[in-house]
Every structure is written in structure tokens, then in C-alpha cells.
Amino acid sequence: MSALYDRIYSLASTRGMSIPEVAKKAGLSSAIIYRWRTNDANPTKPSLIAVATALGVSEDELVGKKEVDPQEELASQVGALFRSVVKQQDLDEDHSKDLKEEMEDLLKVRARRLKAKQDAKN
Questions:
Q1: Measuring CA to CA, how many Å separate 9 from each of 3, 6, 26, 69, 110?
Q2: What confidence score (pLDDT) does residue 32 get?
Q3: How far is it, in rounded angstroms, from Cα 106 to Cα 101?
Q4: Which terminus has fewer CB within 10 Å in the chain: N or C?
């Protein structure tokens, strides 16, 4: 199994995406990505860029030349969770905006509490 495929799979999984979903978002067939797994095909630069874009990472992060920033990774996971909930609940645009605002408020409150806890430790 190729390191590139493993990285794509890992990044997709943390974003709540499957390989076919990544491929579709990148404008590729899932078969080509699966061929990268077995080294039956080599990705082209445009394909790598498309997959990186679909996953919300740089090309360097995708191919392992640069580590994925943990905060950016967390933000991506939160975004994936939000999209998943909106999709599962079939929320319209107005209710999606309401949910986003509520999530932002909740995260701000929780972040302030954690910051206070952190400051108290120091």
C-alpha cells in the first residue's frame, strides 16, 4: 500500500469523507485513487492538487513534505462535523446559519473556560 494513499485515507477519514467522496470532490474517479494505493498508477500534479484541495490541505501536506497543522486539522474536523450534522438533519440555509451561530457561541464559551483553567494552572 502506498504512503500517499494512506495519507489520503487518513485525511479523508478525519474529515468524515470516503475515498469516493474525495474523488468526486476532486473531479476524479475513485478508481484512480485506488490505483495509487497499489502503485498501478502515478498521480499527476493536477490530480494531487485537486485531491489536496478537496481535503483542505496543501499539496506538500498531502504528499507528506510538510506536516498538517494540528489547529488547521481540528478546524477541518469541526467543519466536517458541522456539514455532517446539517446533511443528516436536512437543515435549510436559515437553520444551518442558526446552528453555525450556536456552535460559535458554544465554542467561545468553552474556550474561555479552558483558557481560565489553563491560566489558573500557570
A1: 10, 5, 14, 17, 31
A2: 93
A3: 9
A4: C
The helix (H) or strand (E) run that includes residue 69 is none
57 touches 1 (CB < 8 A) = no
Each residue's pLDDT tens digit, 16-69: 899 999 999 999 999 999 999 988 888 999 999 999 999 988 888 898 887 767
Q: Are 10 and 55 in contact (CB under 8 A)?
A: no
Question: Which cell numbers in the block locate residue 101?
Answer: 451561530
Closest alpha carbon to 47 in 72, 29, 61, 65: 29
Q: Which domains does the chain have, with CATH numbers?
A: 3-67 (1.10.260.40), 71-121 (no CATH)
Report the candidate in 54, 64, 61 with the shortest Cα–Cα distance to residue 33. 54
Q: Is 108 strand, coil or helix? A: helix
How many other CB atoms sit within 10 Å of the CB of residue 17? 21
Torsion-angle region of residue 16: left (phi > 0), alpha (psi -120 to 50) or beta? left
Instruction: State phi, psi for 2 to the nearest 5 degrees.
Output: -85, 150
